[in-house]
Amino acid sequence: xxxxxxxxxxxxxxxxxxxxxxxxxxxxxxxxxxxxxxxxxxxxxxxxxxxxxxxxxxxxxxxxxxxxxxxxxxxxxxxxxxxxxxxxxxxxxxxxxxxxxxxxxxxxxxxxxxxxxxxxxxxxxxxxxxxxxxxxxxxxxxxxxxxxxxxxxxxxxxxxxxxxxxxxxxxxxxxxxxxxxxxxxxxxxxxxxxxxxxxxxxxxxxxxxxxxxxxxxxxxxxxxxxxxxxxxxxxxxxxxxxxxxxxxxxxxxxxxxxxxxxxxxxxxxxxxxxxxxxxxxxxxxxxxxxxx
Length: 292
Known about the structure:
- The protein is of the alpha/beta class.
- The protein contains seven helices and 14 strands.
- It is 25% helix and 29% strand.
């Protein structure tokens, strides 16, 4: 097998992978993804033991055990550009031989559990509720850079969305659609709200917010997204990572699912007064479901 280029798979002097500064064996096959580095310790506080604590830039990693099960939690920072780094480097840690720079003969499947925060765009979704994304529409550019074979269902839904998107004014956005793992979705209790996430490349204008710079999409984005339905499915929330996570996990052959603590409702203009408590409750729920 042909070896990878050293400028494609970049290793540090200690043999760790470039951005995450992790060595093979530092990260488990089940990985919890959080955005905020401060939330890593919130998750690992539930572990029975923590064997590894490492940090590089905004990427904080804790690996340990809960109920005898080895798992890791890592902070990704914000946005799908960081998701591109984190998922590719975690996959490489498991599926590329760092000595020979070749892809391993035996594939190691991984499970990614995203625990994030989000704003709802449907007025019936309460602040401080929990939501799981069955799929995500990516308004970021990440999907344009990868070969991503889609099933017929995805193609039909994407084409329908593109047609509706063409009604928006002055936009060259080309969205992509990516799905949660059906295997993981089957484990999620019915008490979780289910919906489609709109993954945006920014927090302000891309999400229809205005401070001192006007947005071309401000008067259209929230009502436009909230009114789109795919049969009995609807776009429920806006955040900045899920579409990229689902895209890369699927293409790399892994399982991924994204949970959101709803901290705001963009339609009713409400924001949570108990954000940390809500996030902590969601962490507990996710661990109860998947780590037994």
